[in-house]
Amino acid sequence: MGQQGFFPPLDEFLDQFYLAEERQAFINDEPRFTGDAWQDAYIGAVAEHLARRWGLMIPPWVDDPRRFLDTPCFADDAQWAKPVLLRDSPIAFRRRLIFTEAEPLRRARFPRPTAEDSRRYAEGQSAERAGQSGRRESEPNKKH
């Protein structure tokens, strides 16, 4: 499946996720591998980002080494955009060497987070950037 065929099912998944009352069930089960390293890493980043963004449990399957890239991938190939993408990429994407905008999973059905959701997410992102919190920090550095 090419990248064009990858996004319509992902968009449908996100629409369903954002409309659901119980979101945890959407990310609990590991999706099958696609055979494309970028897609497999992106799927791991999506699940981890959704968990972090909406205060859900991060499923353990997202830490499978096959859900990480070996070389950086930028959402925009323009050289001028790279510093912005490096700065703004959420931790779930950045740790997989996928560099994108700050809210890469935004959709028309993207729910408006509560003030508490926004505060918790911002605090988590700031702490992750500073390397001070998160379950990932207690793990040894792995070469993926």
Question: What descriptors fit this protein?
Answer:
3% strand; disordered C terminus; two-stranded parallel sheet; mainly alpha; globular; 144 residues; single chain
Short description:
The protein has 144 residues and is mostly helical. It has helices at 3-19, 24-28, 37-54, 82-88, 91-94, 115-130, and strands at residues 73-74, 98-99.
Total helical segments: 6
Query: How does the helix and strand content classify structurally?
Result: mainly alpha
CA(first)-CA(last) distance? 23 Å
| Total number of strands | 2
Query: Beta-strand level of the residues, as a percent range?
Result: under 5%
Radius of gyration: 15 Å
Give me the side-by-side strand order of the main sheet: 1-2
What do the pLDDT scores average to? 82
Main beta sheet: strand number and arrangement?
A: 2 strands, parallel
Total domain units: 1
Shape estimate: globular
- The run of helices and strands is HHHEHHEH
The stretches of 5 or more residues where confidence is low (pLDDT under 50) are 132-144
What is the share of helical residues? Answer: 40-55%
Write the layout of secondary structure elements.
Blueprint: H1 3-19, H2 24-28, H3 37-54, E1 73-74, H4 82-88, H5 91-94, E2 98-99, H6 115-130
Parallel strand pairs: 1-2
Describe the structure.
The chain has helices spanning 3-19, 24-28, 37-54, 82-88, 91-94, 115-130; strands at 73-74, 98-99. It has one domain (11-134). It has a two-stranded parallel ribbon. The protein is 47% helix and 3% strand. The chain is mostly helical and 144 residues long. Residues 132-144 have low confidence and may be disordered. The protein is globular. The protein is built from 6 helices and 2 strands.
